[in-house]
Amino acid sequence: MSRLQQRLEHCAAEGRAALIPYLTGGDPEPAATPALMHALVEGGADILELGVPFTDPMADGPTIQLACERALAAGTTVTHVLDAVRAFRERDADTPVVLMGYLNPMIRSSAERFCADAADAGVDGVLAVDLTVEEADTLQPALQAQGLDCIFLLAPTTSPERARRMSETGSGYLYYVSLKGVTGSAALDAQAVADKLASLREVVTLPLAVGFGIRDAADAEKVAASADGVVVGSALVELIAKAGRGDDTLPATLRDAAAKLRQGVEAARARR
To answer: pLDDT tens for residues 238-249?
Structure first.
């Protein structure tokens, strides 16, 4: 059983959703990332999503686009992101880490090399936003060979047939995009999400994490009532943007933000 599966089953046994914060690796600078990862765990994160910065993040809104620009301007590469995970693992051997990004940086050398390096660094799963289930062979076999989970995105428009195929092909969890749009949107409809998750569970077996549009503890509580995981990205990345480079208070700021989100997730237990 993978570390990711173990953590999700642990959260389910506690009767709650997993809190899954997102950070862009290398934002505001590569050296800062491990401390920010630790801060989120201290605040209550169950799983971490770490973005691999890319020049053309097509599914991301302005907040994460700018985070990618800052990270790339600071010289961040895939190697730096993996080094951050490796440094994180020196103190934390338990919290699952999922890399989230786009295929180009992941397969630039080769899928096999990227996956081997990711596994060696301590990564648990990979979500390539532009990897469709029809083209899963681009990355999934190499991930599987290294014991890494391959996570797919589900959209509100995904058909039951494609959802079933994603569940059969992928592992770890499925990431349900809560709206037709990009990251950072404020158009969250928690009831529509709950209804969609109920229908998806008729055809998928993997846990369902929900992201896009979740900005605060109130949003997290609403979504956690029906989801297996709650992903929060842009709201946290905005805090990093406001702090900028060299702000020693940033880890504490992120820890406090994660703690509030965790309170929202915990508050949803009675509604599950």
So the answer is: 999 999 777 899
Between CA 236 and CA 45 the distance in angstroms is: 12
Side-chain half-sphere CA neighbours of 38 within 13 A: 16
Q: Indicate the DSSP class of residue 125.
A: E
Q: CA 22, CA 44: separation in Å to the nearest integer? A: 13
The structural domains of the chain, with segments of one domain joined by +, span 3-271
What Cα–Cα distance (Å) separates residue 85 from each residue in 34, 49, 118, 138, 157? 7, 11, 9, 23, 34
188 CB contacts (<8 Å, ≥6 apart)? 178, 179, 213, 214, 215, 219, 222, 223
pLDDT at 5 > cutoff 90 = yes
β-sheet bridge partners, residue 128: 101
Look over the chain and give the mean of its residue pLDDT values, rounded to a whole number: 94
Which residues carry out catalysis? Answer: 49, 60
Q: What 8-state DSSP symbol labels residue 248?
A: T
Nearest CA-CA partner of 34 in 102, 93, 81, 79 = 81
DSSP summary character for residue 17: P
pLDDT in tens, 113-125: 999 999 999 999 9
Sequence-separated (6 or more) residues with CB below 8 Å from residue 149: 2, 4, 5, 98, 124, 125, 126, 143, 170, 171, 172, 173
- pLDDT at residue 187 is higher than 70: no
Compute the average pLDDT of residues 131-141. Answer: 96
| Architecture of the structural domain at 3-271 | Alpha-Beta Barrel (3.20)
pLDDT surpasses 90 at 20 = yes
* CA-to-CA separations, 8 to 14, 29, 123, 241, in angstroms, rounded: 10, 30, 16, 30
Alpha-carbon span 43 to 207, nearest angstrom: 23
Question: What pairing do the DSSP bridges indicate for beta strands 229-232 and 208-211?
Answer: parallel
